[in-house]
């Protein structure tokens, strides 16, 4: 999506449904009209559409997606299509059935977008060089919540969703119920390496499609098909043969092997 839009000026922005997680700013269309998109970055689960005069912050929630269409081949708008952002010959359409996503504007005059309240408390990017076992160890000190819930919280490390948390903990042979503060430096180093490995595999597979997720071109992610424990409760553990178990932590399903992942 990035290469298709970077360097193009905004030709039109239409907001059909402003009631997302937070209201879409009323002045957004006039703010972006004629402005050239410099690039699109990512911070955690937020897409940062960078313009010279500010940043458009986009979050897709649980069910949102951006789809790209040639300007002359845009399909009729559906009931869950909420925003159209046009760039001369390309149109980006925001679709979000549950409306848990967000589209907000951060003016350059307000300083670095990393200071925005939604971004300021985010943890380390797992695939950047600054994330390792030592950083994960520091981020888990004094935390009594389970390591699975800490991974999902996003303030120790970002981008480790429910599937990847289960898979990373299995890869690292760590019980998902273990209080985060009980992980020592060795296990933190192992877990950090597993997170990097699992996310790299997921990117190679195009992500994980479970109902709503697809890429901007409509392609489905394949990682869930190769998951070793996620969604496989009752199946044999690929390492030891014991049945994979399913538990619920913080209203999210966790899949694990009680023999391989000991406290």
Description:
- The protein has 263 residues and is an alpha+beta fold.
- The chain has 2 domains: 2-115, N-terminal domain of MutM-like DNA repair proteins (Alpha-Beta Barrel); 133-256, Helicase, Ruva Protein, domain 3 (Orthogonal Bundle), CATH 1.10.8.
- The chain is 22% helix and 22% strand.
- The strands form 3 sheets. Strands 1-6-7-5 form a 4-stranded antiparallel sheet.
- Strand 2 and strand 3 (46-51) form a beta hairpin.
- The radius of gyration is 20 Å and the shape is elongated.
- The termini are far apart.
- The model has no long low-confidence stretch (mean pLDDT 92).
Strand order of the largest sheet: 1-6-7-5
Rg calc = 20 Å
Largest sheet: 4 strands, antiparallel
Mean pLDDT: 92
CATH topology of the largest domain: Helicase, Ruva Protein, domain 3
Overall, the morphology is: elongated
The secondary structure category is alpha+beta
Question: How far apart lie the N and C ends?
Answer: 42 Å
């Amino acid at each position: 999506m990035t290469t298709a839009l970077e360097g193009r000026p905004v030709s039109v922005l239409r907001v059909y449904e402003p009631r997302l997680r937070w209201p879409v700013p009323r002045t957004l269309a006039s703010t972006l009209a004629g402005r050239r998109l410099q690039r699109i970055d990512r911070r955690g689960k937020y897409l940062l559409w960078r313009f010279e005069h500010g940043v458009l912050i986009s979050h897709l929630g649980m069910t949102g997606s951006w789809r790209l269409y040639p300007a002359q081949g845009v399909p009729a708008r559906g009931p869950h299509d909420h925003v159209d952002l046009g760039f001369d010959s390309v149109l980006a359409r925001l679709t979000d059935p549950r409306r848990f996503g967000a589209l907000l504007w951060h003016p350059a005059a307000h300083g670095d977008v990393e200071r925005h309240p939604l971004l300021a408390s985010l943890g380390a990017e797992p695939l950047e060089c600054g994330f390792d076992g030592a950083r994960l160890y520091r981020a888990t000190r004094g935390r009594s919540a389970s390591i699975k819930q800490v991974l999902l919280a996003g303030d120790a490390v970002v981008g480790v969703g429910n599937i990847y948390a289960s898979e990373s903990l299995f890869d690292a042979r760590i019980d998902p119920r273990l209080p985060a503060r009980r992980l020592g430096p060795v296990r933190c180093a192992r877990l950090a390496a597993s997170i990097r490995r699992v996310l790299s595999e997921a990117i190679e597979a195009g992500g994980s499609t479970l109902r709503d997720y697809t890429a901007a071109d409509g392609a489905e992610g394949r990682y869930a098909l190769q998951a070793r424990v996620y969604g496989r409760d009752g199946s044999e553990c690929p390492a030891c043969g014991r049945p994979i178990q399913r538990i619920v932590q913080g209203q999210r399903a966790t899949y694990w092997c009680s023999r391989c992942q000991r406290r």
